[in-house]
Design goal:
Helix content is 38%, strand content 24%. The protein is an alpha/beta fold. Strand 3, helix 4 and strand 4 form a beta-alpha-beta unit.
Length: 118
């Protein structure tokens, strides 16, 4: 899958997803300091699923009417260590293949998904 990791996404989690064979860009490396609308526009332009810990993307996604090829995965759990985050992220992403077209919230013990309006 093609992902865009937001600037707040841990590097260990980015690397764990790369090791799983995913095509992933990372805002912290490619465009640090980008605004949320710019990050969302980049995800749309490159048809990548956005991975983030930033809750602001939910409102932006529904307000902008993202196309169905795009998805947002919001991770909502305490980051106790980079290794734990990488493990939870890698397991969650590997558990599904239907991230596109959804606003998804990943918690340690569950995943909630809602169709995006576009």
């Amino acid at each position: 899958m093609r992902f865009l990791a937001n600037e707040n996404f841990p590097g260990d989690a980015v690397e764990a997803l790369r090791l799983q064979g995913h095509d992933i860009r990372w805002i912290r490396a490619d465009a640090p300091g980008s605004s949320d609308p710019h990050v969302l526009a980049l995800a749309q332009a490159e048809e990548r699923i956005l991975l983030t810990f930033d809750t602001d993307f939910g409102e932006l996604a529904f307000r902008s009417g993202l196309p169905a090829t795009i998805g947002i995965v919001l991770f909502r759990f305490r980051m106790t260590s980079a290794q734990q985050v990488a493990r939870v992220v890698a397991q969650a992403i590997a558990s599904r293949s239907d991230w596109a077209g959804h606003f998804s919230v990943v918690e340690v013990d569950r995943v909630r998904m809602r169709l995006l309006p576009g």
